[in-house]
Amino acid sequence: MNSSISYPAGLPITARKEDIINSLKTNQVTVIAGETGSGKTTQIPKMCLEAFPDNHRLIGCTQPRRIAASTVSARVAEELGREEGFVAYKVRFHDHTTRSTRIKFMTDGVLLAETRQDPDLLKYDVIIVDEAHERSLNIDFLLGYLKNLLARRSDLKLVITSATIDTQAFAEHFNHCPILNIEGQTYPVKIRYCPLPAEIIEERETVLEHCVAVIRDLFVKELPGDILVFLPTERDIRECCTLLEKYINSAVILPMFGRLHAADQRKIFQSFKKPKIVVATNVAETSITVPGIRYVIDSGLARISRYNVRSKTTSLPVTKISRASCNQRKGRCGRIGPGICVRLYSEEDYEARPQYTLPEIQRSNLAEVILQMIALRLGHPADFPFIDPPHSNAVREGYRLLRELGAIDAKNRLTGTGRIMADLPIDPCISRIIIAAKESNCLREIKIISAILAIQDPRIRPAEREQDADIAHKIFAHPHSDFISLLNIWNQFQIFREESRSWSKLRKFCKLHYLSFQRMREWLDLHDQLERILNKREGFANNSVDASYEQVHKALLPGFLRNIACRKEKKIYKNTRERELMIFPGSHQFSRSGEWIVAASFIETNRLYALTIATIEPEWIETVAPDICKYSWSHPAYHKKSGSIMALENVSLFGLRIISGRKVNFGRR
Ligand code: ADP
Ligand code: MG
């Protein structure tokens, strides 16, 4: 039956089928490197099927992005044409696998989570870690975990696939396993450097206009052909598409980013009578191959998440991509014939960039990493077989934060609190507030708030309609707390949901109120997931009486103690690290906040802005964190009348004075 598996004749990987199958049979680990579009993701699972016809367990294939897991699963299912469910995928909130599934695509996070229930991954015969060059945290976890597991399970096969970037590191990690290089037919690509003229100020609008001018120029002067444009953000892509629609009517304009609807995503694989212009984020760099591209326009930018150890914030700044990424992008147009890659930056700029993007482990919040590692029993990061071990400073900082949150004890063992926190698929600071909410009796409110904090604010402010959006958002706004505003959005949405019971009406509701429908759905999903997990535990039922402002905000504090700030002057606050910050100007709280605030997140551009904030009372801090507050005394004096020693007490939190000169009585002499 397996001999009937067919492979697309044009794909470079097809020519190497025998080598790959041989390597799979004779080696426990095989690294397969090949250019994007050579057929790795879609064809290797089929080759595994063919290599091991007597196996009955799963062939698992991990993907860094949900969007790739679903589109690729659909493609392989179509190519194989087997029974329903034979090829299926599982992502965080949706498991589409069935009993008849043999090829399972999933995000790497899903496989990692499965190691908790099934430490030896006994459901699998073969595991393919796809796109390993991305070096996300999950991939590094998996590669370390699998290294240990392979020693225990000699029957398990591992395939690591990667774009042609630094494959040596993987082979070395797995005892110098073989590397198969898939040589594809590639054509020369001409590079043109076309930076914004120096006298023009680099603002978003001018950059986009420049980009569109370059595309128009290409369109007029070169042979017709499909164009792939790389821009950093969804917003840039939308605006660019609008401009292109206006100026170019002889092409089909297609946006491509992670949150786009599946049906729109699939359009990039269709062929049209007119040439197409696909405007994409870095998903089109290696994850998804847009076929038939002749021209690439590269902004040289991407959003890359980064944890800033100094400000203790994770942000998603638009960053210059590495030279390796620039060249990946360039390579997208050399597959069907000679191509042209226009770089919207100068050659000097290119030369000055780092060769590779740092692996995520070297730029992330290690508290979450460590908590997961402890819960997964992966041991101490110092002993774990990481390809690139994290910096010891960051590890120490991670342990410190976990101790501060009460997730681990002095011996770095999980506490009861920590065990619950590790169960929740959210940042430790956020899971900590759920624990606090149990004590403050405001679980109903905090479950809702924590779910949205773990996602992203659902309120959207489209370019040029910012004011309309602000007006629409006002009806939800609480005068002193963004957290309550979020709660209001949830409540309104639920009322409407019960009345209407139709997704299309809910979509309209979101549109009318400038809310992202997608995020609202994710919010519901994550909230339900949290409820399901918490319902298995004693004492996490919802409060029946609405909680007060004080209850809710006291519960928020233990998770965000480091994010407390007090007013220094007018609009400037000072935080617990003596850094100045401002409330984000677009926020409803911008001109309303009180003397003391707590923030759930920050964004750092030219200065530090607090997002999602609430006004609090400094006295609350002491009641929720007496162990972390520092006490000092001055002016001791003997009080004759009572016969006791009196002094003035100061209380501070990480150096920030919260209570000054409070009279205390040290008792009788
Ligand atoms: P790689 O993983 O090596 O980058 P893929 O296996 O993803 O390569 O892609 C191989 C080919 O299959 C490409 O030409 C790509 O355009 C095509 N392809 C992948 N997914 C789809 C899909 N959903 N519909 C149509 N073609 C697809
Ligand atoms: Mg791929």
Describe the sheet with the most strands.
8 strands, mixed
Report, as a whole number of angstroms, the end-to-end distance: 93 Å
Regions with little confidence, pLDDT below 50 for 5+ residues: none
User: What small molecules does the structure contain?
Assistant: adenosine-5'-diphosphate, magnesium ion
What's the count of strands?
A: 26
Strand order of the largest sheet: 4-3-5-2-6-7-1-8
Radius of gyration: 27 Å
Helical content (DSSP H or I, runs of 4+): 25-40%
**Global shape:** globular
Structural class: alpha/beta
Mean pLDDT: 90
Percent of residues in beta strands:
15-25%
Number of helices: 22
Domain Helicase ATP-binding: 21-183
Domain Helicase C-terminal: 214-377
GO molecular function: ATP binding; hydrolase activity; RNA binding; RNA helicase activity
Protein name: ATP-dependent RNA helicase HrpA
Descriptive report:
The longest helix is centred in the C-terminal third of the chain and has 19 residues, at 482-500. This protein is 37% helix and 22% strand. α2 crosses α3 (66-80). It is of the alpha/beta class. The strands form 6 sheets. The chain has an 8-stranded mixed sheet with strand order 4-3-5-2-6-7-1-8, sandwiched between helices. A 6-stranded parallel sheet has the order 9-18-13-10-12-11, sandwiched between helices. A hairpin with a 2-residue loop joins β25 (644-653) and β26 (656-668). The mean pLDDT is 90. The chain has 22 helices and 26 strands. Adenosine-5'-diphosphate binds at residues 11, 34, 36-43, 71-72, 74-75, 269, 289, 291. Residues 40-41, 130 line the site of magnesium ion (MG). Residues 214-377 form the Helicase C-terminal domain. Keywords: ATP-binding, Helicase, Hydrolase, Nucleotide-binding. GO terms for molecular function: ATP binding; hydrolase activity; RNA binding; RNA helicase activity. This is ATP-dependent RNA helicase HrpA. Residues 21-183 form the Helicase ATP-binding domain.
